[in-house]
Design a protein that fits this description.
The protein is α+β, with helices and mostly antiparallel strands. Helix content is about 35%, strand content about 25%. Strands 5-4-6-7-1-8-13-12-11 form a nine-stranded mixed sheet, sandwiched between helices. It has a three-stranded mixed sheet with strand order 3-2-14. Strands 15-16-17 form a three-stranded antiparallel sheet, covered by helices on one side. Helix 3 packs across helix 4 and helix 6 packs across helix 7. The N and C termini lie far apart (about 40 Å).
């Protein structure tokens, strides 16, 4: 019996901000962003969009197919938590009308926790193969204005249904892990934006990749050349390119630059126009690979490197299932991305600075999103979500 990802769907905001506009405002070259970091656009959440609404929108197609009573567990991964106690997944549980016997829990470890959720989901299904586990990762990446991280903002959510005998990707049990207490990226409770030591974070990312890979090689018989494609955590596209060049060099793979690039190129398409989605980014990258690769991936093995600052990292593998292309949401994703509205710099600042009330006062939130779910109000410190 195999266990893995049976179905995958993602969602991002209605608005986007083109980094060409940011470059013009900053009087810098657009290629600094388009080529330098591999990003063109960043998703900007509308006033009535947040990690809960994006998560529910991402998961809706999966739940509509299998039914609301089919999900036994909902694992919600995020580093954009909205409450110190209550899981954001509980709101999603209600919005999707999941069964009352469905367990719900939120996981946190920077951008890594979706992988923890996926591995936990696989373990639950391996124990009870008749069960279906819904894994959702949802985040909004925010940095200070005029900081080096500003251009790497973005938002998005991804939902994965984990089952026995999956239709998309079989997740293999061998993993390589690495953890270290470092301060490369963090966001204290009293801040709405993250703090990052960019050069140090890149150094730790690459170190963690090497360490996790070495541990993986101890656990698995697979070598670098057994993989056809690789998915990386994507704080920005260029980071994945640097990482894969590093891993190829470590393994003395004997590939030229074009061959190395071809192993990750199809994972970058969606991220380039969405921006950083933290926990969701690697799995949106997987979706991009499955939906944009020109050749049939059936039987191909994918290497995954998941990284969460602070830090925890993991390398693991998966094998694409024959017939996977029949079970994708390619058209829906394409239509969603094409329907987004571009914002100018003034509107970008309005969205960035939209009030985040913390005094318990009543706040009606303007209806803007075109999604199926929205944040309607905040009253007495309570967030009120509705279906539309």
């Amino acid at each position: 019996m195999s266990v893995g990802i049976d179905e995958i769907s993602f969602y991002t905001s209605n608005y986007y901000f083109d980094l060409r506009t940011l470059a013009e405002v900053q009087n810098t070259d657009t290629e600094k962003y388009y080529q330098g970091i591999g990003q063109e656009k960043m998703g900007m959440a509308a006033p009535d969009e947040d990690v809960v609404t994006m998560a529910a929108n991402a998961a809706l197609p999966l739940v509509e197919r299998v039914g609301t009573d089919a999900v036994s567990t909902l694992l919600f991964a995020t580093e954009t938590g909205i409450d110190q106690s209550k899981s954001a997944g509980i709101y999603v549980h209600r919005l999707l009308n999941l069964h009352e016997n469905c367990r719900v829990v939120e996981l946190k470890q920077a951008c890594y926790s979706a992988t923890a959720a996926l591995q936990m989901a696989c373990a639950l299904v391996a124990r009870q193969p008749e069960k279906k586990v819904l894994v959702i990762a949802s985040d909004i990446a925010r940095y200070d204005l005029d900081s080096p991280g500003e251009a790497t903002q973005g938002c998005g959510a991804v939902a994965m249904l984990v089952t026995a005998n999956p239709r998309l990707v079989e997740i293999e049990p061998e993993v390589g892990n690495y953890a270290e207490d470092v301060m490369d990226f963090w966001r204290p409770n009293y801040r709405t934006t993250a703090l990052v030591d960019g050069k140090y974070s890149t150094k730790i990312y690459l170190k963690s990749l090497k360490k996790a890979w070495e541990h993986f090689r101890e656990a698995s018989s697979l070598a670098f050349n057994d993989f056809g494609h690789f998915c990386y955590h994507l704080p920005f596209g260029r980071m994945a390119q640097k990482a894969h060049q590093h891993l190829a060099k470590v393994n003395q793979a004997g590939l030229d630059a074009d061959q190395v690039e071809a192993q990750i190129a199809d994972t970058l398409h969606y991220n380039r126009t969405i921006g950083n989605s933290y926990t969701a980014s690697m799995y949106i990258g997987l979706t991009s690979l499955l939906e944009n690769c020109k050749h049939n991936l059936a039987g191909s093995r994918i290497g995954f490197f998941s990284y969460g600052s602070g830090c925890v990292a993991e390398f693991f593998s998966g094998k694409v299932v024959d017939g996977y292309e029949k079970h994708l949401h390619r058209e829906a994703h394409s239509q969603m991305l094409q329907a987004r509205t571009e914002v100018d710099y003034a509107r970008y600042l309005e969205l960035y600075r939209y009030p985040d009330p913390r005094d318990g006062s009543d706040n009606e939130i303007e209806a803007v999103t075109t999604g199926r779910f929205r944040l309607a109000a905040i009253r007495n410190h309570k967030r009120e979500y509705i279906a539309v």
